[in-house]
Design brief:
The protein is an alpha/beta fold and about 425 residues long. The longest helix is centred in the first third of the chain and has 18 residues.
């Protein structure tokens, strides 16, 4: 279809300057492997796996075939009081990758829904164990936990919440761990583990048995790649265990190999009580999210309900949609057969070398990274975020797709990337940033 200003007008685009986009549209019409193509036939290297989604590369024929076969066999079935084999097979597949003990999986349609689902699970769990007074949630400054009402309330990114009022009450925010002492540190910084003790302050503020759960991204991704300091996650785990607080890892970005292991919980050696996930679960080919919980949480909620009654009054029309399950099962098979998590782990050193090599540029304020995830922060211009937005456009025009937040370019290549791909990403970043 030919794109005109008129037929661009109806679509209200998310997280986009709609007026700017419609003045100068940047459209993708095709994708394959490591690349997108524009409407004019120009090839664009994908430096951010779409939106951290396509870790196995774009348009995998195995996934397309699995989805097509599923839609021709069973296109839809309710997950309320009904089921289909793919949902149970996928729950087994996900549980095989999560840390030991997190082996019950609830399916939804996005990372945002996964976070709201995890909040409800936490409340239901405490109610089932006669601690329904636990109504507080704890998140962090600069956190991103999706855009539903619960996740927006947890958010610590001001622009994501300022238009929407107070949202949910009873959300407390730990300080973030982006510290100047850790600037230009590759991997985990040495300073900041003590910031986890903010949680102790909140326990003392609201009471020992009033906090339901703490939500953290192991690596805060969307805010610009904030890697946790050494000892920080362990300290949070210790405090949560001591006071009966559930620890939730939001692994929507980190999950499925981004840190070199199936989940960042394994990479960092800290096991939460709940993990939320989405994005790379289906390689981005179908919308899907999931929540993995400890067996004890599932059993507590289920066993507290009367026989014959639903134990958890929550779910979505498209929970465990057959086509999404087919896409996810095909994706997990690709990860396994091609050993993509191991390939990403092996490529990580070369990738981080290329990203940290940019620190000599005068406009680069900081570089942060872990695994196959890195953030290059440039010095702000006349207002925060202006340069970041300009940089994204400049890179697109040079042939590189990246995600930017504020003045940070967030790099997250697919695990099928070659060293030549990484070299090209580095050179295009260098050329664009050197103009500032």
């Amino acid at each position: 279809m030919e794109m005109t200003l008129e037929n661009l007008e109806r679509h209200w685009m998310p997280f986009t300057s709609n007026r700017e986009f419609k003045r100068e549209p940047r459209l993708f019409v095709r994708a394959s492997g490591m690349h997108y193509w524009t409407a004019t036939g120009r090839k664009v290297l994908d430096g951010s796996s779409g939106l951290f989604t396509s870790a196995a590369g774009h348009c995998r024929p195995e996934i397309a075939a699995a989805v097509a076969k599923q839609l021709q066999t069973l296109d839809f079935t309710p997950s309320f009081m009904r089921g289909h084999p793919g949902a149970f097979a996928l729950a087994d597949g996900v549980a095989a990758l999560t840390p030991q003990g997190l082996d019950h999986v609830f399916f939804c349609n996005s990372g945002s829904e996964a976070v709201d689902t995890a909040m409800k699970i936490a409340l239901a769990y405490h109610l089932a164990r006669n601690e329904g007074q636990r109504g507080y949630f704890v998140s962090r400054e600069r956190a991103y936990h999706g855009v539903n009402i619960g996740g927006t309330a947890l958010s610590g990114m001001v622009r994501n919440r300022e238009a929407f009022g107070a949202l949910l009450p009873g959300v407390l925010h730990l300080r973030h761990t982006l510290l100047p002492e850790n600037r230009l540190t590759r991997g985990m910084g040495s300073t900041g583990a003590e910031l986890a003790d903010d949680l102790l302050r909140f326990v003392n503020l609201v009471g020992e048995k009033r906090i339901a759960a703490v939500f953290v991204e192991p690596i805060a991704g969307s805010t610009g790649v904030i890697v946790p300091p050494r000892g920080y996650l362990e300290r949070l785990r210790e405090i949560c265990t001591r006071y009966g607080i559930l620890l939730v890892f939001d692994e929507v970005i980190c999950g499925f190999g981004r840190t070199g292991e199936p989940f960042a919980a394994t990479s960092f050696g800290v096991t939460p009580d709940i993990i939320t996930m989405a994005k790379a679960l289906t390689n981005g080919a179908q919308p899907m999210g999931a929540v993995a919980v400890r067996t004890g949480i599932y059993r507590t909620i289920v066993d507290a309900a009367p026989d014959g009654a639903p134990e958890f009054f929550h779910g979505y029309t498209y929970s465990a949609h057959p086509a999404a399950c087919a896409a996810a099962l095909a994706t997990l098979e690709i990860y396994r057969n091609e050993q993509l998590f191991a390939k990403g782990r092996e490529l990580s050193g070369y990738f981080l070398d290329a990203m940290f090599a940019l620190q000599d540029l005068p406009a680069v304020n900081d570089v942060r990274g872990f695994g196959m995830l890195a953030g290059i922060e440039i010095k702000p211009g006349k207002a925060p975020g202006v340069r970041g937005n300009e940089l994204q456009a400049k890179l697109f025009d040079r042939g590189l797709h990246v995600k930017t937040t504020g003045d940070v370019a967030i790099m997250a290549p697919a695990f099928i990337a070659s060293r030549a791909d990484i070299d090209l990403m580095g050179s295009m970043l260098r050329e664009a940033i050197a103009q500032y």
